[in-house]
Design a protein that fits this description.
Elements lengths: L1 E3 L1 E6 L10 H10 L2 E5 L4 H13 L3 E5 L13 H8 L4 E10 L9 H22 L3 E6 L5 H12 L10 E3 L6 H8 L3 E5 L10 H6 L5 E3 L21 H12 L3 H16 L3 E3 L4
Parallel strand pairs: 1-10, 2-3, 3-4, 4-5, 5-6, 6-7, 7-8, 8-9
Helix pairs in contact: 8-9
Length: 276
C-alpha cells in the first residue's frame, strides 16, 4: 500500500502549459510524497493522463470528454473502453454540462442537446465499469446547467440511495444545489477559488465533512498566495488550509479527512504518511 502525505484530486499535468518543465514539477510532487489524479478532458488528453499514471506510483488518471471539448462527431464508446479497463484509471470524466461559453442563437438548443448526449454516454460508461463520475457543471444563467445536470442524473437513476456516485468538481454554487448533488451520492470538491472568494465560506462550512475534496484544477486558477502564477498540484495545500480555517480544524485534521475522502471515493489503495 502506497503512503502519501497529501493529494490533489483534480489536476491536468498532461496539458501543454507543463511541457517545458513537467519533470521538474513532478519531482517537486514526488519529493513531497503527494498523490495526484490527472483528469482527462478529451480522448487524447485522457491517454496522456494515463501515460503519467503508469509512470508514477502515486499518480492516477481519469478518462472522459469535457463539455467544452465536444466535437461535431458522435461519441464513440469503444474509444474509451480500453482506457477504462486500465487499473490506474479511477473515474469517468470530466464530463457534464457547460453553458458558460454558449452564445444565444439558432443553434443553442442543439448545442445543449449535444452536451447532454455526451454526458449521458459517460454516465453509462461509469455505470458499466463501476467508476465514479467527475462532473464539470458550469451555468450561465441562474444555475441553468446545474438544474439540467440534476434532471439528467435523476433520469439516469441517481437518487438518495446512490453511494459514491462521483464528485462535483470546482464547485462554486449554492448550498441548495450542493445538497442536490450530495443527496445523489456525490462529493463536493473545492478549488483555489475559495482562497479569494469569501462568499464561499458558508458553503464550505455546511458540506458534510465526509464529502469534502480539495483540488487545484492546475494549471488554472492558482490560489492565494500564488495568484497570477501557473497553478500546480503542490498548491492544493492552500486550498486545504482555507477549508481548515473555515471549519475550525487544524491543517492535519483537514488534510487527513480530505485524503480519506479521496481514497474512499476513488478506491485508492493508499495510507497516510503524516506531514512533518
Amino acid at each position: 500500500m502506497k503512503k502519501i502525505k497529501m493529494i490533489d484530486s483534480h489536476s491536468h499535468l498532461q496539458m501543454k502549459k507543463f511541457d517545458e518543465d513537467r519533470e521538474d514539477v513532478i519531482k517537486r510532487i514526488l519529493d513531497e510524497e503527494m498523490g495526484i489524479i490527472n483528469v482527462g478532458s478529451s480522448l487524447s488528453n485522457s491517454k496522456e493522463a494515463i501515460e503519467l499514471a503508469q509512470k508514477y506510483d502515486n499518480f492516477w488518471a481519469t478518462a472522459g470528454i469535457h463539455p467544452g471539448d465536444i466535437e461535431e462527431k458522435d461519441f464513440v464508446e469503444n474509444d474509451f473502453i480500453p482506457l477504462l479497463l486500465n487499473d490506474k484509471v479511477v473515474a469517468v470524466g470530466e464530463c457534464g454540462l457547460d453553458y458558460s461559453f454558449l452564445e444565444e442563437g439558432n443553434f443553442l438548443f442543439e448545442k445543449k442537446k449535444k452536451q447532454e448526449e455526451f454526458f449521458r454516454h459517460q454516465i453509462g460508461l461509469a455505470r458499466k465499469f463501476n467508476k465514479p463520475l467527475i462532473l464539470h457543471i458550469r451555468s450561465k444563467n441562474n444555475g441553468d446547467a446545474h438544474k439540467d445536470a440534476i434532471r439528467i442524473l435523476k433520469e439516469e437513476g441517481f437518487d438518495n440511495r446512490s453511494k459514491n456516485s462521483g464528485v462535483a468538481h470546482f464547485f462554486t454554487e449554492t448550498i441548495e444545489i450542493a445538497n442536490e448533488f450530495l443527496s445523489r451520492g456525490f462529493y463536493i470538491s473545492f478549488s483555489g477559488v475559495i482562497t479569494f472568494d469569501f462568499k464561499k465560506d458558508n458553503l464550505i462550512a455546511n458540506i458534510p465533512e465526509d464529502r469534502i475534496l480539495a483540488e487545484t484544477d492546475c494549471p488554472l486558477v492558482a490560489p492565494v498566495p500564488k495568484r497570477g502564477e501557473r497553478n500546480e498540484p503542490l498548491f492544493v495545500r492552500y486550498v486545504i488550509e482555507k477549508i481548515a480555517d473555515v471549519r475550525g480544524w487544524n491543517f492535519d485534521k483537514a488534510n487527513s479527512i480530505i485524503l480519506e475522502n479521496t481514497k474512499r471515493l476513488f478506491g485508492l489503495e493508499i495510507s497516510q504518511n503524516r506531514l512533518k
